[in-house]
Design goal:
The structure is a homodimer.
Chain A: H1 14-27, E1 32-33, H2 34-41, H3 45-57, E2 61-64, E3 69-72, H4 74-86, H5 88-104, E4 107-114, E5 117-124, E6 139-141, H6 146-154, H7 157-165, H8 180-193, E7 196-199, E8 206-212, E9 222-229, H9 235-239, H10 242-259
Antiparallel strand pairs in A: 1-3, 2-3, 4-5, 4-9, 5-6, 7-8, 8-9
Helix pairs in contact in A: 2-3, 5-10, 6-8
Chain B binds a DNA duplex (30 and 30 nucleotides) through helix 2 and helix 3.
DNA sequence: CGACAATATTCCGTATTTCGGAACATTTAA
DNA sequence: TTAAATGTTCCGAAATACGGAATATTGTCG
């Protein structure tokens, strides 16, 4: 009666709101009614009714129970299965990450450049009790992350300038590099060494080591990284992990190569 | 070069087209490019570009590989996992069906009334080599299916008339009941006996026995049925399966009851 | 049975969104 | 460097979503 917890369903476009609705429904282990969803989401009833109707017509939901309730539809469940069965790419990447975490004992992640930010594609946490909790899907500015520096280091200086000009170098910690000249120097160093470090530049106490996942044609758009509390892994010890990181990167390279579609089926 | 196989992506509403696109992408085990999708679906390039962009912004897809290719996004994969993990309802139903098929040796399905048609919610095939292949998600008119007669038998005659008036009794086989008076008599018999039979009324050679999944409050909207080739299972032998069907129906009743949300979690 | 309450469904004018041809930008190949 | 292929942006016309209010359908209680 008193619970007015509203699970916001947002989305820039009406289209995307439907996915939010599906998520709400998929999380439940029970049938849902129109009225129940109205109370849960706060959306107007006719709007929800239309959405449910669309999803039902598409087979993503189905009426169930007494006919006025909804559950996930066959088509949606099939899509879910197809996706999880067929996506060896992400499965393989995840396996590589997990192995790397086993080896180094710290949280690791795979990242990609998306716009001017670094996006966490996947992540496996360390089993150690003390850890930074950063979840996949989140974003970090390029200039203060190890992976981001790698991506910047691959670009021509004009590309880099264009990217950074529109997003000023925000200062996250005392050590964040906010001076463009200093950043250029740092990037030059990264290019020479072939690896990048984040020395508490994004979060105090968090250090990070990253290398690019190599790519045949030229620039790469993904990187692997280890992240650890500096208390447990000071910089010198962090650098000892380079060979293991490199091996993981090669494994990822092979996976991505195959997923790029050079190995067609017939002929 | 010569392959002009176009995977149609339809949908009454723009929203639904996105699901079609996701299905195309989820089925692949490789990254897809904009151009590749243009060739595969036949949709105009700007349209596809916008759709991909929306899905990417929503996290349902992610750019991958060299950054101009797409693969399934984290949010979509999480949705898939949530759905498959959390949906004990459909899993339990499927298990009941499978057990029933083991017992009776013939294909079985769970159906629901949707409009004036019977919708196959789930189905498990017999291992026998000779079988009718009817896939879940397909629809059959109510008047010539065992399940449909059960649903009709629960209605008041005015409800039934309204439903049938707008969809004339189509004749599928020699035995299809197309005379309204005969149908009323048949339905009266179904109500008395508590089960319904389809004696080659939809497909020649196919017989079917169905019972309702009971429901506490009154009318039920789902049924269980056995379907078999009449050659292997003549009517008399088919009726011997009634007790087993009934037991499956009770099991399903319990599952649906729990899913209806009477057993809330806290307090 | 009839009246009331709760829920589901339809209507419909207004406000957004989608659509996709054409122009433009970027990357890859030669 | 040029040419070819692919990706991206523009923008007016057409289609769609929106949601308050009215209506229809249950379900419940006297």
């Amino acid at each position: 009666m008193s619970t007015s917890e509203v699970t916001r369903i947002d989305g820039d476009t009406p289209t995307l709101r439907l996915f939010g609705l599906l998520e709400v429904i998929a999380q439940k282990d029970q049938f849902v009614s129109l009225q129940g969803l109205v109370e849960e989401t706060g959306l107007p009833k006719p709007t929800l009714h239309r959405m449910l109707q669309q999803l039902e017509n598409a087979g993503m939901l189905q009426r169930d129970g007494d006919g006025r309730q909804y559950s996930t539809g066959l088509r949606l469940r099939q899509l879910a299965e197809t996706l999880l069965l067929n996506n060896t790419v992400h499965g393989a990447r995840h396996a590589v990450l997990r192995r790397l975490v086993d080896e180094v004992g710290e949280s690791c992640n795979i990242t990609a450049l998306s716009g001017a930010e670094v996006l966490y594609l996947d992540r496996v946490e360390t089993p150690a009790p003390l850890r930074f909790y950063l979840h996949p899907g989140s974003r970090v500015p390029a200039h203060c992350s190890a992976s981001g520096k790698l991506f910047l280091a691959q670009m021509s200086s004009s590309q880099r300038r264009r990217l950074l000009e529109h997003s000023p170098l925000e200062k996250y910690t005392e050590k964040t590099i906010v001076d463009p000249v200093a950043l250029e120097a740092e990037i030059e160093r990264v290019r020479r060494d072939g690896y990048a470090v984040d020395n508490e530049e994004f979060l105090p106490g968090l250090v990070c080591l990253a290398v690019l996942v190599p790519r045949a044609g030229g620039r790469s758009n993904s990187a692997v990284a280890v992240q650890a509390p500096v208390i447990r892994l000071p910089l010198e010890k962090l650098l000892d992990l380079l060979p293991k990181l490199g091996r993981a990167a090669s494994a990822l390279e092979r996976i991505e190569f195959e997923a790029t579609g050079d190995g067609r089926d017939s002929a």
